[in-house]
Amino acid sequence: MAFNSLSEFLMMGTHAVYVWSAYGFSALGLTWLVWNTLATRRKTRDTLRKRFLRNRTR
Amino acid sequence: MTYSSFLVSEFLVLWRRKQDVFNALLFFVIVVVLFPIGINSSPEFLAPAAAGIVWCATVLAILMAVEGMFKEDYHDGSLEQLVVSGLSLPLLILLKIVAQWLTVVLPLLLMMPLLSEMLYLPSSGFWVLTMTLLVGTPSLFFIGVIGSALTVSIKQGAMLVMLLILPFYLPVIIFSTLAVKASQAGLPYSGLLAMLLAISLLSLVISPFMTAIVVKASVN
Amino acid sequence: MSWAWFHKLGSPKWFFSWSKPWALPVFCFGCLSLLIGLVWGLVFAPADYQQGNSFRIIYIHVPVAMLAQSCYLALGVAGFVFLVWQMKMAPIFIKAMAPIGAVMALIALVSGAIWGKPTWGTWWVWDARLTSVLVLFFLYMGIIALQNSLDDQVLANKAAAVISVVGLINLPVIKYSVVLLETLHQGPTFTLTKKPDMPPEMWLPLLFAVIGLYCFVAGLLIWRMQSEILKREYRSSWVKQEVTEHGL
Q1: How many CB contacts within 8 angstroms connect chain B with chain C?
Q2: Which residues in chain C have their CB less than 8 angstroms from residue A32's CB?
Q3: Which domain holds residue C168?
Q4: How far is C171 from chain B (nearest CA, A)?
Q5: Which residue has the higher pLDDT, C225 or C179?
């Protein structure tokens, strides 16, 4: 363990701003990627299912 | 149609549209003039920056010229004629590039003495710059033509060509400006010229075939 | 050696049913490994004696930068495969991969800039690797923009493949040219031939993070490819069956 306490960990020496902003931006980017992937997946399935069901009832 | 008749007709078309070529040259000069006016007009700034300024303007002017290369042919159907003509499409594209290169780059080279005076470029740097232009610009045409063919069916394709192609131009700009800088510092620059030549030859080998693939796909 | 698997890859249907059980486990394994690597790196790894704690950005920066490059390599190979064998899966792969690569390049740029501030005292230097990642980002954006503006599917496939291949051929030239511009960046952290300079308690978490991010991206890629396959093959009966009978 490189840190003695939680506050020391959050401070990251003197580099809290840099470390956490870098990780924050990375988390943002990766989360967007996951969200976008899953949303596309759901949307594709939904539109196709609706189209198929509509054609069936006709 | 034969290869020579195609080349002649290409020159004829370019001659009839000499206003376009003239506009590209005017655009080139205006971009060059922007730098002394916009940044600094002192010889201390301009002499080392001249090669970079000229190259940036060249790249933009060539992109403007290359971007519309297939547009008209695509819309009036002559591009389709080329595909079904039975001649080798990559070779026809190569001839088209040669015609375009001669009409754009030669006038540009003729203007170089004037511009290098305006940018306070010393005469040793001037010759190296001219050489980089001679050796490097073919690759700009070869690469740009791919982008031009890719976007031929899109109405507002000019911006997309810029976005697509400009990153590929970076090495050419870097090697050229480094060569001029090296010559101004009294260092050997022949290796950098050789790199430029290598890029031009590499793109000469690849580009006509890639462009032919795209042209065939766009026409169908 | 049998090439059957290679030809099977050409069939979207085969790929869809083959990849179906893989996406979630690979993605979860990737998340787990990434998390282990990051927590290990952030909490347990010792601070760098020169850079202090700011070096901990390495645990996200290096994996992301590696992926930004690997993704482009994969794009170029897929483009080549499409131009030579006309394999149907290749453009699907390119379409799914390009946004992932763009995000990776962007994260690499931003985290690198943030790391540069305490280390070099400036957000940006025109150094070889920063510049080449910036160019990489432009190349990704170009591919995405091109695909979005071409309506004809056949043409869009060809166009994306051509620009990927051309990009891959040009990438070494771009890299070499920006190396000639002066370099400030530290040497590569991982090379295949040499043992890393860092002590193991520093590079082990990095290894976890790299492997984790690769699997994370692989999982996402499979999902994106599946969506793309469904979109493109909606006329075929197996898609109808797949969508109406099985749930999400």
Answers
A1: 77
A2: 103
A3: 24-241
A4: 9
A5: C225
Give the single-character DSSP code of B157. -
The residues near B180 (Cβ < 8 Å, ≥ 6 apart) are B50, B51, B125, B128, B129, B132, B189
The CA-based angle B140-B142-B148, given to 5 degrees, is 95
B39 Cβ under 8 Å from any chain C Cβ:
no
Closest by CA position to B145, among listed B89, B196, B214? B214
Cβ-defined contact of C46 to A18 (cutoff 8 Å): no
- CA distances to B90, C61, C125 from C115, rounded to whole Å, are 47, 9, 12
* Burial environment of residue C145 by CB neighbours within 10 A (0 to 12, 13 to 18, 19 or more): middle
CB contact under 8 A, B217 and C169: no
Answer yes or no: is pLDDT of C195 > 70.
Answer: no
Report how far residue B13's alpha carbon sits from residue B68's, in angstroms, rounded to the nearest whole number.
13
C179 in any annotated domain: yes
Contacts of A42 (CB under 8 A, 6+ apart): C248
Contact A19, C53 (CB under 8 A): yes
Mutant choice from B161, B177, B199, B210 vs C, greatest count of C C-beta within 10 A: B210
Task: Count the domains in chain C.
Answer: 1
Name the token pair of B84.
């079904």
d(Cα C127, Cα C175) in Å, to the nearest integer? 11
Mean pLDDT, rounded, for C139-144? 93
- State whether C149 and B163 contact (CB < 8 Å): no
ipTM of the complex: 0.85
| Rounded to 5°, angle at Cα C158 from C152 and C159 | 80
Inform me whether the pLDDT recorded for C72 exceeds 90: yes
Closest CA to C135 of A30, B172, B176: B172
* Alpha carbon of C213: minimum distance to chain A alpha carbons (Å): 10
**Residues near B162 by beta carbon (within 8 Å), at least 6 away in sequence:** B63, B67
Note the pLDDT of residue B73.
84
